[in-house]
Amino acid sequence: MSASEYLEIKELVRQVIQQYVMNQYPWGVITRPLTPVSMSILFVTYIMTIAMLALSLIQIAVLVRYSMIGLRYTKNPRRRSNTVGNGAGFRKLPLVSILIPIKNEDAVTIKRSLQNIAGLNYPRNLIEVIYISDDPEHYVNSLIEYVEPMVRRLGLNVRILRREDNTGYKGGALNFGLEYAVGDVIAVFDVDTILPSDYLMKAVEALFGGYDAVTAVWKGYYTVSNSIARLMKFMYDVYNETFIRGRFLGGGFPAISSNNLVIWRRVLSSVNGFCRCTGEDLDLSIKLRAMGYRVGLLDSVVYCEVPYTYPSLKRQFSRWLFNGIWNMKHNLRLLLSSKGTTVWEKVDGLLWMLQFPSISFAALSILITVVLSIIGVLIPPMPILFLEITNILIAFPLIIALLSISKYVGYNAWDSISNAVKSALIMVFLSFPMLIYSVESLLTDDWEWVPTPKGTSFQHAIHRNALLQDLIHEILAISILVMVMIVLVINKQLLTTIYIASIVAIMMYGLRLIVPQNH
């Protein structure tokens, strides 16, 4: 290349950059002429991209704020001015009815649940425990026979109820148990929830202190040690300091966790109990705030068993995704029109509903990149590039805050970084089925409820055929990406080929992560 040719190319590049910065390339930098069809496709794609990036930017910015609040708490847990349950004065204690839905749970898990409840420093004569089961009659009878000697020994008032009409998801089961409960206070726990000994006393004190319902930050524990279980424990331990504690302390939408809820019975009755849906806790949260009830966060931490297989993790996340979209379809108008909620709670409530559908953004952005490369877009328009760069920049303080939180909750630097990277990889891997589930959830209200039983006795070998069936979405996505990569290589689109190849490599590594290996 001669000096004059070099100068001509340099000047051309300079002009293109200048014109691009001045937004004179409305379709972006294109490598081939656009047809009317490709222009229509680009228009729709760019609208979707801008909406996705704008929502992502808002969510990240909000999480940065909540993570900073959560970090301040974890650094100095004595600063608890906005949490409740620190002693509202002695009152005559009410009877508490504890509702625990169960299905396919083993006797060992029930035993562990009862032992934990027996360890609460609340008068046992003021506690009744009601397990609501959808299991066959013979199995429920065997559970009753198993727990009766233990119940007598522990001095607890326990009933295991079987409902024949097992419709209405978890909310239906809770309403069934509510018909038999006699307490003025209703507590809802999962069978795997482990409570600190002072939890119930703090909760009742908070109710007497002016709160209508209370919940607490929940973290993870595992009974099966493998890569998925340890990773999920890290995610719950660290991220819930942001998603739950930071949100409550930051004045955001007070989302109740149905694995630990304590509420006045009269308040629950005023909103007609639980909805017959899977997202009964989010539905209840919206209705309580819409009616002006106060929801508080206890100064306590409860623990719940984490999934230890990728299929159970995917079922859990897909259920949460469906819950958010169901409530967005059925309760968004109630939330937005409510006079009992602040403007910020309305916005934050919508963000809460969209947090799990947003996992699909990773898959959506990959598909968008493939579409753009086929059309011949080398660089997207300036507004889109600006949003992409802004998303990346604003994510850095969030990452730093989350890593700092992990330090204060007991993880060393290497474990924090390693788990943060692995969780990001898993989310990319999970984004493809989440994209499909998001579309499905928008189209239907019917969702197959698949419970995830807890306890080591439900360990089982993952057969190859079952694993392939559970991973059908992910394997299909990898196959399509490999075919796209081959087409890109043939068409000599090097940059996009490298990008797609990196995604395939990430997903192949994700396959390694999801195979449980006990050690």
Structure description:
The chain is of the alpha/beta class. Helix content is 60%, strand content 11%. The protein has 17 helices and nine strands. Strand 3, helix 4 and strand 4 form a beta-alpha-beta unit. Helix 9 runs parallel beside helix 10. It starts with a helix and ends in a 5-residue tail after the last helix.
The percent of residues in helical segments reads: 55-70%
> Roughly how many Å is the radius of gyration?
26 Å
Pick out the low-confidence regions.
456-465
Widest sheet, order of strands: 4-3-2-5-7-6-8
How would you sum up this structure in a few lines?
By secondary structure, the chain is an alpha/beta fold. The chain has helices spanning about 5-20, 35-75, 105-120, 135-155, 170-180, 200-210, 225-250, 265-270, 280-290, 310-335, 345-355, 360-375, 380-410, 415-445, 465-470, 470-490, 495-515, and strands at about 30, 95-100, 125-135, 155-160, 185-190, 215-220, 260-265, 295-305, 375-380.
Give a topology summary.
Layout: H1 3-21, E1 29-30, H2 36-75, E2 96-102, H3 107-118, E3 127-133, H4 137-154, E4 157-162, H5 169-180, E5 185-189, H6 199-208, E6 213-221, H7 227-249, E7 260-264, H8 265-270, H9 280-290, E8 295-305, H10 310-337, H11 343-354, H12 361-375, E9 377-379, H13 382-408, H14 413-443, H15 464-470, H16 472-490, H17 494-514
Parallel strand pairs: 2-3, 2-5, 3-4, 6-8
Antiparallel strand pairs: 1-9, 5-7, 6-7
Helix pairs in contact: 2-7, 2-12, 2-13, 3-4, 7-13, 7-14, 9-10, 10-11, 10-14, 12-14, 14-17, 16-17
